[in-house]
Every structure is written in structure tokens, then in C-alpha cells.
């Protein structure tokens, strides 16, 4: 039997829907604006002010110039390398640390965990970190963007809590069958913790994809620059001249605007396309790894 809703409930639900739709529109429109601007005629875009809702004089010239730019393609390759290698190392290091700290018979487990959590609030700072990277011989190398961030204390806490939630009886059964710690981790703990592993992949992957500050500090060779650092140069220093070879002098400024928007789309869409595949694990993984009182 259908329950009759009161006028107050209807007004409340309607207000919620309207407010959420407005918030969604406010959130999505900037990305939609960038997409429309990247597809629009450069001269029309420069003259237009205010909101735009459709591309005028649709052209892919800006995207063509972005992909023809050697810096963009090398930045893509470097970013993919940093994401794949960096995320793989992150997951391995975090899983090993979380497994060790989630077992019940580990000596000095609490002091070690306190020391790790302490680094979430206090660190050596930029200059000591730079000196350390330099003394280790990592300066101006790809490993300078991977090894110093090999593990996140925050993600370690989440994964440790998830591993601790696996029943101890499963570990004991595996040990009776002759399994060692590595076998238990790979064949028992990890398969039962795939939601939190997926969340860690998302956290670490997005972090590496969006990283630019460490690259700006540690890298000197442009061939090692990630895509986000190339994007920063284009947006902040207005360096689009290298993409506009063959463009007439009067046309450089208008098409330079669309190149900026096209570069943003090229740098953003790949990581956005990853979210739908991991979304179903996201809430479950975070809840599994949440700190329980």
C-alpha cells in the first residue's frame, strides 16, 4: 500500500532535487565550457564573453596542433610511465607495510605505526627533501618523481585497517597448509581486499597523473617533463608558440586560446575515463578501510 506523503515531504524532496541539480550544473559547466571552447572557432571565442553552450565554427585544429607538438607527446609518454611504474610500486610497498602492521604478533607494531602517522603531520620540509634527493643521485631523473613518494602514510592506514578486518582463522588455516607470509598476502589477504586495492589504485594513479610540483623542483631536462608540467607552462607562461608553426601572425593569438583549452581536455579526459571502472569499488573500499572505533 502506497504511503501518502505530506506536503512538507514533497516540498523538501523537490527542493533537494533542485538544489542538487543546480550544484551539478555549477560543477559540470566549467568542464563543458572548456570542451566547447576547444572545439570552437578561435576568432569567435576571443570575441565572445560570458557563458557559451555550443561550439561555433566547430574545428579540430587546436587538437591537431596539440598532438603535433613533440612536447605534448613526450609529456604523455612520461606521465604514463610515472603512473604505471609509480602506482605499481605504491601498491606493492603499501600492501607489504599494511600486511606487516595488521598482524597480531608483530613486535613494536604500535610504535612503528605511531612513527608512520607522525609523518602525516610533520615532515622535513622542501629544502631537506631536495638535498636528500640530490645526495641520492636522483635529481633530474624519472626516479625522483617515484621513489620519494613510494608510499603514502594515509593510504597505508586505510589498507592496514582493511587487512586487519580479514578473519584471523583464514590466516591460521593457510599456515596449517604450509603457506608463508608472502603466500598468505597474495592468495588470501589481497583477493579478499580487492575493493580497497582498487581505491588505492585510484588514489595513487590520480596523484601521479596530476603531479607537477615535484617535477618542477627535481627535473631540469624537458624530455622528462610529465604532461601536467607541460600544461602548466602553456597555461601560466602562455607558451603556445611552439604549437603554432605555419600559423599567420594575426591568427596566432586567437588559436593560442583554443590550444590551451584543447590541452586541458587532452590532459583531463584519460583520468576521467578511469573513474567509471573503479566507481563500484570506491565507497565499499573506503568503508572497509575506514578506521573503526
Automatic annotation (TrEMBL):
This is Carbohydrate ABC transporter permease. It is a multi-pass membrane protein. Residues 76-276 form the ABC transmembrane type-1 domain. It comes from the Bacteria. It is found in: Cell membrane. Its main location: membrane. The chain crosses the membrane at residues 12-36, 80-100, 112-131, 143-163, 184-206, 259-278. Belongs to the binding-protein-dependent transport system permease family. Keywords: Cell membrane, Membrane, Transmembrane, Transmembrane helix, Transport. Pfam families: BPD_transp_1.
